[in-house]
């Protein structure tokens, strides 16, 4: 195989450049690093990566030089969607089929980390499920604080049950948040910046439990599925996550809170059409049917504008 035939995944490019995946997506979004899609995965050719590195070394232009013969008449606009729920793939698919020429790029980052990335102009749409213990509400308090100074819109995507994963049969008779600091109970946590981690930390604060009192607080996994799998593998007694992952893995689930899973976009002149397209997609019978068929999702408010600044 020649060097011209070698390509990298986004994860491999991030590792080679020693940067985050979001930084790589930002380079692609700005057309500084050419990429293409193979199925659901984005790829970058070795030669394009080397050309990018050489341009940076020589201080040359970081824009990708392209000939007229190499570009189509309409260039798809890269559109970075940050979030982990599988239903976001349905939205990305619908956006790609829409009238607005878009190339959706998926970043599987946690809610708080995604929102901070949006503030830093590294993604175009973020999905959130961030619980605020002071108000007992989701998302809006965080968006107001982090996107201060930006006009934004928050649209409901779906709602779902969050709670605790426990071993089948619930042998330790775990009932809720108050059991988290029991000496005979060990938890496994989500990574910092994820919505599930925020939910846990807020519930600990509300219930007056110190993180140092929680056995296993610093042991982390990076998705609902890996948390549920850790419980199934008897690596811990409690995990925090959503109902769907419990059913996929086959562990018992204790529902504790109905969380709202919203989409956030910064309002700019250039993305008015995209925002309207997303509203239309979420309000369509086709999208609601597709989400409903995935199971364990409440679509009562799907497409509803929950908050908007002007």
From TrEMBL:
MF (Gene Ontology): DNA binding
Pfam family, one: PBP_like
Domain PBP: 93-282
Domain Helix-turn-helix: 8-56
Source organism (scientific name): Cytobacillus solani
Protein name: Excisionase
NCBIfam families given in the database record: excise
Top-level taxon of the source organism: Bacteria
